[in-house]
């Protein structure tokens, strides 16, 4: 892992001490659009994990099928972070 990524992980871990601090940090770090996009990506993953059809997700979240397909691909990675965070492969 590159040192800049390690530093970012370290600061996110530190900011995670409270929801309010983490929200403030992410608000400062990201543009409003970037923050919204990350939140939407996570919602895609949660819906895919709940077996919601892709077209329904697209309609509900107003995102493209391509975005959902990318999320689906990453969610299917048994060694990926999504699987681990969702408790499927801890």
In brief, what are we looking at here?
The protein has 90 residues and is an all-alpha fold.
Produce the secondary structure layout.
Elements: H1 3-15, H2 19-29, H3 32-49, H4 54-61, H5 65-75, H6 81-85
Supply database-style keywords.
single chain; 90 residues; mainly alpha; 2 domains; 6 helices
Descriptive overview:
This protein has 90 residues and is mostly helical. It has 2 domains: 1-30, no CATH class; 32-90. The chain contains 6 helices and no strands. The chain has helices at 3-15, 19-29, 32-49, 54-61, 65-75, 81-85. The longest helix has 18 residues, at 32-49. The radius of gyration is 15 Å and the shape is globular. The two termini are 21 Å apart. The mean pLDDT is 94.
Largest sheet: none
**Unreliable stretches covering 5 or more consecutive residues:** none
Rounded mean pLDDT is 94
Based on secondary structure, the structural category is: mainly alpha
Number of β-strand runs: 0
General shape: globular
Helix content: over 70%
Instruction: Please trace the helix and strand order, writing H or E for each element.
Output: HHHHHH
Any idea how many domains? 2
Number of helical elements: 6
State which percent range the strand residues make up: under 5%
Q: What's the oligomerization state?
A: single chain
Indicate the radius of gyration in whole angstroms. Answer: 15 Å
Cα end-to-end separation = 21 Å
